[in-house]
């Protein structure tokens, strides 16, 4: 039988003597929820784990894109698209994209640039259109002296290659190298860090009645399998991060089941990224139909993720998220 270990993440200042740092970061744990497909969950103490299990859950994570993972990192979203669900059309003109990038560069640790919407129902964009939208903006940012890591949010190898050639330094693939058979090779030879996000099917079909046996464990197994594929293609584990893919082939209930137990993903031993900003479930629960007005709900979900040790948070509202993070950290530390 397979067991899944979910460290019960704490950020209380009263940390017991034997507690371990969660993934070497800002949270700690001294109990673990043991999950399986066959049995009811149970909670155990650290003494019930092997030394290897304790090590996996507590070891510091490798740097990602030259960023240390011992503090929460903010990835700012820049969609150079006419149709993204919350900022579509706002940054399609290169000058507007550059201005937004420079604005975000202030509080962001990574800029995530995309030229194709992957919202539910979105149609595929041609390689040439997607490249034309993204590569010139990346080049202009580098020419202007921007030093931040830039990730290219694409599922297409040719778009990624053009982005790396102009200055992108990270690959963010919402299909975890599934969509384009050439992608793993391109990422391996570019030597860049890679975010492997969980998704099913394509944006056109992913929300047509998605089903899981157990969404948390199914996404965990799928990400473990994609990590193995990436490693087999020559992308070393210390260049990989994972993302459960909130909203990608998931119902409201699926998203909430993932969010409640995100810390299980730490057992995969790599940094975890959470992207929930302005997504539909925030609108549903927060009673806000307009995506651009979902910043408060997005902050709440980002902080809930950070309280489970998520190392990277992908957001539209960079300055607001940075402020919320600073205050969360100060208020939980007590100084
Ligand atoms: N979500 C979106 C796009 N890329 N990448 C990662 N790693 N994680 C995510 O959750 C994620 C992602 C969708 O959001 P957005 O870019 O705002 O919208 P659109 O796809 O409509 O451009």
Structure description:
- There is one protein chain.
- The protein has about 325 residues and is an alpha/beta fold.
- It has ten helices and 13 strands.
- The strands form three sheets. It has an eight-stranded parallel sheet. A three-stranded antiparallel sheet has the order 1-4-5, with no helix packed on it.
- The chain has helices at about 50-60, 95-105, 125-145, 155-165, 185-190, 215-230, 250-260, 280-285, 295-305, 320-335; strands at about 5, 20, 30, 30-35, 40-45, 75-80, 110-115, 150-155, 170-175, 195, 240-245, 275, 310-315.
- β8, α4 and β9 (about 170-175) form a beta-alpha-beta unit.
- Helix content is about 35%, strand content about 15%.
- Bound molecules: 6-hydroxymethylpterin-diphosphate.
- The site of 6-hydroxymethylpterin-diphosphate has 21 residues, from β6, β10 and β12.
How do the helices and strands line up, and which of them pair or pack?
Elements (H helix, E strand, L loop, with lengths): L3 E4 L12 E2 L6 E2 L1 E5 L6 E4 L5 H8 L14 E7 L14 H12 L4 E5 L12 H17 L6 E4 L3 H10 L3 E4 L9 H8 L3 E4 L17 H18 L7 E4 L8 H9 L12 E3 L4 H7 L8 H12 L5 E4 L2 H16 L2
Helix pairs in contact: 2-3, 3-4, 4-5, 9-10
Bound molecules: 6-hydroxymethylpterin-diphosphate.
6-hydroxymethylpterin-diphosphate binds next to strand 6, strand 10 and strand 12.
> Averaging pLDDT over every residue, what do you get?
96
| Uncertain spans | none
Spatial shape: globular
**Residues in helix, %:** 25-40%
The ligands bound in this entry are:
6-hydroxymethylpterin-diphosphate
What string, H for helix and E for strand, traces the elements in order? EEEEEHEHEHEHEHEHEHEHHEH
Largest sheet: 8 strands, parallel
What is the tally of helical segments?
Answer: 10
The number of distinct β-strands equals: 13
Structural class: alpha/beta
How widely separated are the two ends?
45 Å
Rg measurement, Å: 19 Å
Proportion of beta-strand residues: 15-25%
- Widest sheet, order of strands: 11-10-9-8-7-6-13-12
């Amino acid at each position: 039988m397979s067991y899944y270990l979910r460290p019960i993440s704490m950020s209380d200042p009263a940390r017991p003597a034997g507690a371990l740092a969660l993934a070497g970061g800002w949270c700690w744990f001294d109990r673990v929820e043991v999950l399986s497909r066959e049995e009811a969950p149970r909670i155990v103490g650290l003494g019930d784990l092997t030394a290897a299990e304790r090590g996996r859950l507590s070891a510091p994570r490798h740097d990602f894109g030259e960023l240390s993972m011992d503090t929460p990192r903010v990835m700012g979203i820049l969609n150079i698209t006419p149709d993204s669900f919350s900022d579509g059309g706002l940054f399609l003109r290169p000058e507007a994209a550059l201005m937004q990038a420079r604005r975000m560069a202030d509080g962001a640790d990574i800029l995530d640039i995309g030229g194709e919407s992957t919202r539910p129902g979105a149609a595929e964009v041609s390689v040439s259109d997607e490249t034309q939208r993204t590569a010139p903006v990346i080049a202009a940012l580098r020419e202007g002296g921007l030093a931040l890591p830039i990730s290219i949010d694409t599922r297409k190898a040719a778009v990624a290659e053009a982005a790396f050639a102009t200055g992108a330094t990270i690959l963010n693939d919402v299909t975890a190298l599934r969509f384009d058979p050439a992608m793993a090779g391109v990422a391996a030879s570019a030597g860049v860090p890679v975010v492997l996000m969980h998704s099913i099917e394509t944006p056109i079909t992913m929300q047509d009645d998605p089903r899981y046996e157990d969404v948390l464990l199914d996404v965990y197994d799928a990400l473990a399998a994609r990590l193995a594929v990436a490693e087999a293609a020559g992308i070393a584990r210390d260049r990989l991060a994972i993302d459960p893919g909130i909203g990608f082939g998931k119902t409201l209930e699926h998203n909430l089941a993932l969010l409640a137990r995100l810390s299980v993903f730490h057992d995969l031993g790599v940094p975890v990224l959470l992207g929930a900003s302005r997504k539909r479930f925030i609108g549903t629960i927060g009673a806000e139909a307009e995506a651009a007005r979902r910043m408060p709900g997005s902050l709440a979900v980002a902080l809930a993720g950070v309280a489970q040790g998520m190392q990277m948070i992908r957001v539209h509202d960079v300055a607001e998220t940075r402020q919320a993070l600073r205050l969360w950290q100060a208020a939980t530390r007590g100084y």
